[in-house]
């Protein structure tokens, strides 16, 4: 035992006498630029606000005292500089099409991290912004032989796009117009569009929710309003489970009471699977409810399978947050088209199809999830907690550039600038739809999570925002 201890002490002494590990030869000098996004000399940049990322061969930092020496010419502005590991990212705003820009990082503004704080040599990055493409919107609806009122609504949307924006409110949870009534109570105006959610399809019909009673939608339509609908498609947590959810996972329950599901969209197309049986049954049920609206002459701005990509293409790369996006873009597109064809075969002709993109920049594209021009009428963008009109305008610009033949809407939002400010900044959304607030108590001063009455009053101050009273009296037959 003593011999073993002596050996261990000797080894420890030898290890303690070793010289520090030498710095790898390629890291002995200051940081070297490996790549940049955009690349130096790029001439196809889109948008008036972009993020520029420099990637080095080692971890780097940018001393606060040196940052004022970093510059860009031609009237553009730099902000929000963030070093992280081997990357330096900086936000660039105020960009103008066809103008060439050069960002200069003088020697000493970027250093190696830790024990190797040697400076990087001066870096110059030049790029120019591409002139936005001109939108040319597809005129016919993607639904063959649409109902007369669906066609009339779409033609009306085409006539106002870029000139006016439709106001909207979404039902609190499912089958009501609480939000719209609250807005009207404290502003005197009704939104032009009311969105309903078929989130409780699995429970309908029951004594607390029955989508076969179309009274809420029929009354709104009778007031002259536009009806839209989304579908948080809840499925069993596991085969045979009585717990329903739309969150992908292992079928377990979290501490907050929420569930995840093992339901896999890739197995929907395999005959005999519980996923296949569930989807067929749900689509049959949904087609029946949509047919009731169609028979009543009500067209529906239809936004299913929304936000499919989730965080797949964002900086977090944490994947989809709904089950319908969990198996990637190819499977999702197949599901969207399956739904589209199912409703077509069922004779559903009153839908205007809205697909939601999660794209926020040209470096964050979710095009693998796009169902295709023949399956989508309108592109929606969902945005939360962005107060900058410049960023919101850039979002609008990015999406319209991606979809030059589709109208673009702010299909869901909360915590964004009022529409008066957005519209004046150039974010010309077809319509906007603040998300509902679970705790809405009916008072004017209620601190609404997504759009309070002060927000609405500022929004109504914009002459280009359409409320229900401003819709054409002859919009529908």
Question: How would you characterize this protein structure?
Answer:
It is a single chain. This protein has helices spanning 2-17, 148-160, 178-187, 215-222, 274-295, 329-345, 389-402, 419-425, 453-460, and strands at 33-37, 42-45, 49-56, 60-61, 71-72, 77-84, 87-93, 100-105, 111-112, 123-129, 165-166, 168-170, 193-197, 226-231, 235-236, 244-245, 300-304, 351-357, 378-384, 407-414, 432-434, 465-466. The chain is an alpha/beta fold. The chain folds into 2 domains: 25-129, Immunoglobulin-like (Sandwich), CATH 2.60.40; 148-231 and 264-470, TIM Barrel. The chain has an 8-stranded parallel β-sheet with strand order 12-13-14-17-18-19-20-21. Helix 7 packs across helix 8. The longest helix is centred in the middle third of the chain and has 22 residues, at 274-295. The chain is globular, with a radius of gyration of 27 Å.
